Amino acid sequence: xxxxxxxxxxxxxxxxxxxxxxxxxxxxxxxxxxxxxxxxxxxxxxxxxxxxxxxxxxxxxxxxxxxxxxxxxxxxxxxxxxxxxxxxxxxxxxxxxxxxxxxxxxxxxxxxxxxxxxxxxxxxxxxxxxxxxxxxxxxxxxxxxxxxxxxxxxxxxxxxxxxxxxxxxxxxxxxxxxxxxxxxxxxxxxxxxxxxxxxxxxxxxxxxxxxxxxxxxxxxxxxxxxxxxxxxxxxxxxxxxxxxxxxxxxxxxxxxxxxxxxxxxxxxxxxxxxxxxxxxxxxxxxxxxxxxxxxxxxxxxxxxxxxxxxxxxxxxxxxxxxxxxxxxxxxxxxxxxxxxxxxxxxxxxxxxxxxxxxxxxxxxxxxxxxxxxxxxxxxxxxxxxxxxxxxxxxxxxxxxxxxxxxxxxxxxxxxxxxxxxxxxxxxxxxxxxxxxxxxxxxxxxxxxxxxxxxxxxxxxxxxxxxxxxxxxxxxxxxxxxxxxxxxxxxxxxxxxxxxxxxxxxxxxxxxxxxxxxxxxxxxxxxxxxxxxxxxxxxxxxxxxxxxxxxxxxxxxxxxxxxxxxxxxxx
Amino acid sequence: xxxxxxxxxxxxxxxxxxxxxxxxxxxxxxxxxxxxxxxxxxxxxxxxxxxxxxxxxxxxxxxxxxxxxxxxxxxxxxxxxxxxxxxxxxxxxxxxxxxxxxxxxxxxxxxxxxxxxxxxxxxxxxxxxxxxxxxxxxxxxxxxxxxxxxxxxxxxxxxxxxxxxxxxxxxxxxxxxxxxxxxxxxxxxxxxxxxxxxxxxxxxxxxxxxxxxxxxxxxxxxxxxxxxxxxxxxxxxxxxxxxxxxxxxxxxxxxxxxxxxxxxxxxxxxxxxxxxxxxxxxxxx
Lengths: 570, 285
Known about the structure:
The complex is a heterodimer. By secondary structure, chain A is of the alpha/beta class. Chain A contains 17 helices and 24 strands. Chain A has an 8-stranded mixed β-sheet, sandwiched between helices. In chain A, strands 8, 9, 10, 11, 12, 13, 14 and 22 form an 8-stranded mixed β-sheet that branches. In chain A, strands 19-21-20-23-24 form a 5-stranded mixed β-sheet, with helices on both faces. The longest helix of chain A is centred in the last third of the chain and has 21 residues, at 433-453. By secondary structure, chain B is of the alpha/beta class. In chain B, strands 2-1-3-4-8-7-10-9 form an 8-stranded mixed β-sheet, with helices on both faces.
């Protein structure tokens, strides 16, 4: 894929974010396709953070490691990131940050350049982006427009002017030999959006008709709380920062019981706290959507690093047996549609539905076509016809599908009783053995129906002897690595799982039938999807390629894993 | 008016003489007195003998997890802020397992009447200390006494921002019923701390013990005076004052949301179309 990759590196608080935002928005307006990833530490100031802004004339679904440009906002970043810069690449920094670096790819901006008011560290980000634009052969007024658009209202007029002066002063500094316009052309489209995985999830929830959302701040899921909280007053969505994750899910369950479409979100640490209430949703058969932005390690782990380590936990979380669903978007675009569909699954089957994302996808951004709203449907599932007068609903009436008609208390003449105990058809506690068997088997029957209603895996390039199985943010890098490896004579099919649990044994076996080798590529140690396939479908996977350093999976890393794992065996 | 029969439901299974019987009688009388029909309110309960009261009232019921009735109630309130909410449970549920939720529900001023039966012991699990047990209370786990300092529910509620705090004794039914009605009618977080004997597992704080100490507040107490309320509930005294301790007006939880103006979200949900998301696309272009 013809592209350019720009790395912006510095300490937290130095403007890596603003520089990336300006760059992203400007490239979007110029008509490029973009993929942006963040690599940051859990701190407000200092440390070493970087952002990769990759752009191209065609769609991008993955980050790459090799950089064409490095914008280093401090001396440390020059040293730490030059290693990823291609031989033909260029690095930009201020004079003060040059240190002892003598790399021939480094271009140092003299402090004396530009007006007095626009000197010093504060202007590093905007100046280095200006150098970049000059090197890319873009007109300086394009950048000035973006700076104006982004900072107008955020900065005092004199500070905004200083930024604009800095852009103008620096743009002429790049020498003719460093001017290298992209080899590819933009492909403008008025409907293109640059969006993060979490923002796409939030929009999907809005499209689905969400009424109540709750969460407790945690990386990487806080951005959904922010997004829904911000639009809530205008769209009529009530959003609450709960006292803890336990409360967040109990709150969503209460809201769902009272008739709203409700969700909550967190990451692994919050899932562990929610375990108790997940079982409550299970036994009370309350539809609820639970977003898990997976991050690395058990316990607090690496708060700002990615992993796909929660799958088997989500399949089993909370004590006892009850049905639940686990689905996972493989792209930013998927994130919108699957977030919306999660509510239909929850309502149709009256179960907790996990929308399992990973930090890498939650926080990265890419360009997508405007979401097709007509593809979203809202289906609230089975409701009981209104009775003549107030009476107790047989909320847990035993049915073939396992799904019992519900009613909204307060909006219906039905009186609705839901109970965390084992209960009878009317929702009142009993431990009668015959009732237990009837109610428990009724609930568990939903699993087969749900599995049958879910699509099987998507098979890409079928018919190869080897099939690589993946889910979540692994899919994008895998598919691009596949193109690179094909040139090396390594070819394989790919199976993408979006509907992870429950699995329809026959559907999965049929999809994976005929391959000589099944290999999982997942961002975890143990190959959790592989284990799940064996457990649920009796499908034997032959090898697992795991990555668990917490960093975003790049095309290069995926290719290296696949080459060493498959080389000579395809 | 006697319509309390309209709420009759499953026969409760408490020990004869349990204070919960009186609480149940008063709940039904209060509901009847306010003419709240079974479909007009939602009862949220937790786990423990006190919470089992919900199964004996014909109404909408959400019997949730131990200690976690109040966050469920907050969710109900967000989905339908027009519904009356009543929570019934006990000292272990609200102040131990659910302590954090209790504090935050009061802080938010969630519009709910909380009927907290306090028997100073765990009945359902057969006789362990509760957060309100006195320091010298002994149990097989605590043969040398519980120690520490018992939670003071009224003081905790006042400190957490409750806008209605009252105390009653299950043995004084007219007062209890009257306070229940006031608590249900109050717009905001109303704690009704109900002294209620456990005749089986608490041989110290018996019916007689409570009856001897419970003393209705006189007209000299001004429930609009926060300092007076604080002083009243924190003072060590021979008697335990009952009645309305504190009442004030502060915007309730739902007043914070413009999403909760007018029709309930649960009602509006039916009219939602996926098109509502479209205006949000612009920000990403």
